[in-house]
Predict the 3D structure of the following.
Amino acid sequence: MQRIFFLMPGQGAQYVEMGKELCDKYPEVEQIYNTANEVLGIDIKGICFTGDMTELTKTENTQIAVFLSSVAAYQVLRNRYNFEPIGFAGHSLGEFSALVAAGSLDLESAIRLVRKRGEFMQAVSDSFPSKMVALRNISIQEIEKQCQVTSEKGKFVGIANYNAPNQIVITGYQEAVEEVVEQLTKQGADEIVVNVKTPFHTELMQAAADAFREEIMKYEFKQPEYEVIANLTGKPYQKDDDIKEILVQQITNPVKWIQTMDYLTGVDADLVLDIGPKDIVQKLAKYNQVSTPTFAFAKTEDLKTLTQKYLAPKTIINFVSKALGIAVSLKNYNDDIELYQEGVVKPYKRMEEIKTQVQYTADGISETDVNEIMSLLNTIFETKKTPQAEREKRMKELMEFSPEQKKDLVTV
């Protein structure tokens, strides 16, 4: 069984129609979006699927839209494939997606909180002109130094995201950001304007953080069932951590994604999966030289590789497991110990080998394997002298788990 560490993106990954394909295919995804509509009292589903980019890019809409896309994608995989989640990390608002996937916060509470978070941040953004820029090919120390020099003149600019050693995002008052960019480009830095106009993760968001602190106290968080890395520290939440306070402080402090990726390099994961729209956090993993194979759910070729090579569908695992369960639960009418060893014990061990092959290798299960399982089970029927009526009943049960039920699996 594959051990997967999941990455959830934040604002900036949005696009019109994101999540629509999953919603059209899978009832549980449609239910997630319908729940969001009911909880919020707005047509967020319509904004995501058929709205215009200007409306979707408003922070109050973007955050909940990206959150829903990530949660929906994770639910689709969780319902249909066998894997072991060993940890989650979400970039900025993606931390909420991670906490929901890890069982720390229920969906409806998260929907309300993420929407409020976006509204509070949008209010700050509307109060003065701001700008966000990613800088490359310049040292972190030079960026920090120039931000301090410019801020001392009266207009704040600071680092919002430590995304990778060669990608640092700055934000603040528009004129201050532009001054820093002008000075650093003279030193050889490259700039990438981010399609966000809110001074996220800086002291300028204090009003949003204060409002969010009051809001978040209304909700209950549980200890995550899996590791979740906090943006504030770049380390997993600990049992005695105040999750609410960490999420509040996240609003006014930089995202420590470099430290998050440093932690990830020491995790015993088979795969890293970017589980949201686009492939932004997959790229950041590569920029941080994460060596574990990394895929993006939103990329068709990546999803095809995952489902064909790495992830065993649950219907297949259930088929093998059901066959084993039938074999062991059948009443034995044969007292010949030697014959029992040959006709029951050995066939059972062979079925276990096939199950291991499906769970722990990338080969999946072939038609030959399925036929072999059926043959082995018939051998056990014969050896145990199972009555014909019982055989027919058991085989009917087994066929309910047939791998032919591929229509229920993720299609690409």
